[in-house]
Specification:
It is built from 8 helices and 18 strands. The model has no long low-confidence stretch (mean pLDDT 96).
């Protein structure tokens, strides 16, 4: 586990978590990661639609390693008559995974209001059985309540809130016995792993065995994060979470090598190269298949028409797209496999 810097990784992770970046709301997160990339000694290049790319050195057969910085969240769909907000999801966020969560509402005028995701009606003590037996639905019985004294739609509009405003969920980071619990482990934890890789290469004066780009992407949660790549890219490695479940091999202490997702298999030869690198380096890994509702930025690049091989690895992560949990060992093993794959 050469030069895995747990303190740095957790610091970077928490600083990224502190920046709300619901898909489409990329500017502040982009500025942070571009600044950190430059601080580590690299020259960041920003994509026009959002994203940061850095050349990590090496020659020939370029490999792109990506992690995404966009988060799932909500958007104001309309303002209800009582001043609450009817909302729709941005990315794969479901009511049962966010009812009761604290949020921040970002207006087009640059104001920020706090609030919470609530059921309607909102109190089980004064509600018939309906609240206990009916599933939450953003269109029908779930809303965002602002922490402001609003009673009408006009009250809310006077605050500057309007349809299309972004709503970010509170991450709520905590760590105990190595277990990391937070929203947006997917994928800011993997972005922190990639930054740790970059830090090691620069501090240790290591040149990768091939040309390597780091790509901090946005829009992964809606399917077009890396539909642009550096023109000379030959291979693509996504760092993303490996969801755990009853039919999965993935486990929070391990790094998973992805064989297939809900779209199609990952490139077999590249996947086997990663497996060989893991074995040689003594990395704790498993092979896994993720269906029926999973994909990575590597899929987006292939579907965009790039002539690349694509693969993906990542830490086992529970409660995907909810209040997620992984372990520092899973991040350590993801780092170790990434390093093993690119080292001379």
């Amino acid at each position: 586990m050469k030069h895995f810097d747990e303190k740095y990784l957790l610091k970077a992770f928490r600083e990224m978590l502190a920046i709300d970046s619901t898909t489409g709301q990329f500017r502040a997160a982009q500025e942070w990661v571009a600044g950190e990339t430059e601080r580590l000694g690299y020259q960041p290049v920003t994509a026009h639609k959002g994203g940061v790319i850095a050349d990590l050195g090496g020659e020939g057969n370029p490999l792109v390693i990506s992690a995404h910085l966009d988060d799932i969240g909500l958007m104001v769909r309309k303002i209800n008559a009582d001043g609450t907000l009817n909302v729709c999801s941005v990315g794969g966020l479901y009511p049962f995974y966010c009812v009761g969560e604290n949020v921040r509402v970002y207006t087009g005028e640059g104001k920020v209001y706090t609030g919470a995701v609530c059921r309607t009606p909102n109190s089980v003590h004064v509600t018939e059985e309906e609240l206990r037996t009916t599933l939450g639905d953003f269109r029908k019985n779930v809303c965002v309540v602002l922490d402001m004294p609003v009673k009408t739609a006009e009250d809310t509009r006077r605050l500057g809130v309007e349809t299309g405003d972004m709503i970010a969920l509170e991450p709520r980071f905590t760590m105990s016995n190595g277990y990391i619990k937070s929203r947006f482990v997917d994928d800011k934890a993997c972005a922190a792993v990639l930054l740790n890789v970059m830090k090691t290469l620069k501090e240790q004066g290591i040149t990768p065995k091939r040309k390597v780009y780091a790509y901090f992407a946005f829009y992964e949660e809606i399917g077009h994060g890396t539909t642009y790549l550096p023109p000379d890219a030959r291979d693509f490695l996504a760092l993303d979470i490996a969801p755990t479940g009853p039919d999965q091999n993935s486990e929070e202490h391990l790094v998973s090598i992805f064989c297939k997702d809900s779209r199609f298999p990952y490139h077999y030869e590249m996947t086997q190269e990663l497996r060989a690198a893991a074995k040689k380096a003594g990395v704790d890994y498993v092979m896994d298949v993720f269906t029926p509702h999973y994909g990575t930025d590597g899929d987006a690049s292939v579907l965009a028409g790039y002539d690349i091989r694509h693969a993906a690895i990542g830490p086992g992560t529970a409660n995907s797209h909810g209040y997620e949990r992984t372990h520092i060992d899973g991040l350590r093993n993801t780092y170790a496999l990434t390093m093993a794959y690119i080292l001379p």
